[in-house]
């Protein structure tokens, strides 16, 4: 009788796995071609499909762009804006009729830069809303275009306001309920892809288990055969030796390289993060709300931080400034009583400092606020919406230098700059005269 040659079943399992993986991937591409957008918001830089349209200054009305714009709007704009109502900022409905995309794009990226350039519409809007500076957003042209597409699609719809700037008409979209079009169709396709992949995985598992059972049965049958030669018995009884795998020099070398790379990566990340406090939000000794004071009651920043327009530092307000109002208002509040105790003990309130530059860097508040016309929100973010203040910006050297490179100087009516601007324009082909053009990126400006 001919000798029986047994083949390892691992080849068969591997082939089946690759086959099902390929089928699943193909099905996913066919059924789920449209990308699903998270209702939690989109990270800036994540949407780039509409870049050509954005560059041409056009908005797109397709479902994917509107869906992406919906998520971006809720993640970045809804705290201050609604489509059809005034919230903190103006209603955005009809924005494309009031302003072209060539104006909207730079406004969203850096509104303070547009205001500083002297644009009449920007200055009027800035003054109309109590000089509240809109934060700059690191969004691409495509992402801004998708936001405008979403705004255009929502114009004229019911706009009963709810918390966080979300309207009752689009609340169903936030909750994942749609009318069957746009994002709803995409979500439905995504659900079908998930179901299909789950079925394929279950089928694959069943096949693998079945093949393992068949292989064991075959081995038991073959072990009872007496006509097997030594080679067949050796193949039948072979076992995979894991000790040979982890003792192999190549495996140890690869593991060592991976370990070194991971340690190196974590070390570099740790070193790069030294001194960075973005997002730092300590608990203060008194529960002071900037949202209540600067937002709802619209108290100007300089009322409490009295030296912000005339000194190097924006001072921490003294207890006496608090008492200008709170000697009459909410006198029984437990938090206000903490101010009374500080005054009685003749001790300052121990506020915890949040924004702190290293000693090697020179920064002058008055140079930026009074001379440069920079609003508090440009660096400190939407302070008027913060219950507890946190560090909004990175405040790194690169962050400051980028601002100096992008922010134009308002030289109108200042004869000191006339000759400098002429020389700059003659050699830079219309590139704006920025802070950097005036020496704003020289090392000695901040380090001396």
UniProtKB/TrEMBL annotation:
Residues 1-21 form the signal peptide. GO terms for molecular function: electron transfer activity; heme binding; metal ion binding. The keyword Heme applies. Keywords: Heme, Iron, Membrane, Metal-binding, Signal, Transmembrane, Transmembrane helix. Pfam families: Cytochrom_C, Cytochrome_C7. The keyword Phosphoprotein does not apply. The chain crosses the membrane at residues 195-218, 253-276. InterPro entries: Cyt_c-like_dom, Cyt_c-like_dom_sf, Cyt_c7-like, Multihaem_cyt_sf. Residues 159-171 have a biased composition (Polar residues). Residues 64-155 form the Cytochrome c domain. SUPFAM superfamilies: Cytochrome c, Multiheme cytochromes. Residues 157-180 are annotated as: Disordered. This is C-type cytochrome.
């Amino acid at each position: 009788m001919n000798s029986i040659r047994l083949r390892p079943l691992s080849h068969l399992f591997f082939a089946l796995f690759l086959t099902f993986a390929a089928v699943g991937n193909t099905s996913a591409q066919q059924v789920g071609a449209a990308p699903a957008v998270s209702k939690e918001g989109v990270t800036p830089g994540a949407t780039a499909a509409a870049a050509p349209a954005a560059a041409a200054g056009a908005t797109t009305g397709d479902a994917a762009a509107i869906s992406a714009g919906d998520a971006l709007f809720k993640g970045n704009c809804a705290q201050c804006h609604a489509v059809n109502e005034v919230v903190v900022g103006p209603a955005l409905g009809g924005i494309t009729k009031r302003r072209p995309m060539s104006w909207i794009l730079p406004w969203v990226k850096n509104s303070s830069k547009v205001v500083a350039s002297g644009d009449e519409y920007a200055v009027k809007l800035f003054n109309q809303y109590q000089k509240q500076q809109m934060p700059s957003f690191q969004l691409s042209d495509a992402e801004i275009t998708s936001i405008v597409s979403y705004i255009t699609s929502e114009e004229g719809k019911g706009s009963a306001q709810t918390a966080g700037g979300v309207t009752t008409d689009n609340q169903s979209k936030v909750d994942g309920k749609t009318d069957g079009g746009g994002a709803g169709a995409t979500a439905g396709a995504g659900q079908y892809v998930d179901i299909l992949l789950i079925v394929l995985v279950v089928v694959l598992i069943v096949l693998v288990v079945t093949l393992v059972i068949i292989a064991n049965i075959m081995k038991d049958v073959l072990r009872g055969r007496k006509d097997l030669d030594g080679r067949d018995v050796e193949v039948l009884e072979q076992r995979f030796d894991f000790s040979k795998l982890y003792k192999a020099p190549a495996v140890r070398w690869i593991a060592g390289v991976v370990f070194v790379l991971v340690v190196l990566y974590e070390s570099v990340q740790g070193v790069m993060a030294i001194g960075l406090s973005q997002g730092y939000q300590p608990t203060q000794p008194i529960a002071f709300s900037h949202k209540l004071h600067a937002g709802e009651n619209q108290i100007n920043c300089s009322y409490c931080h009295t030296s912000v327009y005339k000194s190097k530092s924006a001072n921490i307000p003294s207890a006496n400034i608090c008492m200008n109002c709170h000697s009459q208002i909410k006198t029984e509040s437990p938090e206000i009583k903490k101010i009374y105790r500080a005054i009685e003990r003749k001790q300052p309130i121990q506020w915890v400092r949040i924004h702190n530059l290293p000693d090697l860097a020179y920064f002058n508040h008055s140079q930026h606020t009074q001379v440069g016309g920079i609003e508090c929100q440009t660096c400190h973010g939407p302070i008027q919406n913060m219950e507890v203040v946190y560090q909004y910006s990175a405040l790194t050297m690169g962050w400051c230098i980028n601002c100096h490179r992008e922010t134009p100087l308002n030289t109108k009516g200042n004869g000191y700059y006339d000759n400098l601007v002429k020389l700059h324009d003659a050699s830079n082909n219309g590139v704006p005269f920025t802070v950097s053009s005036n020496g704003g990126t020289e090392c000695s400006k901040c380090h001396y």
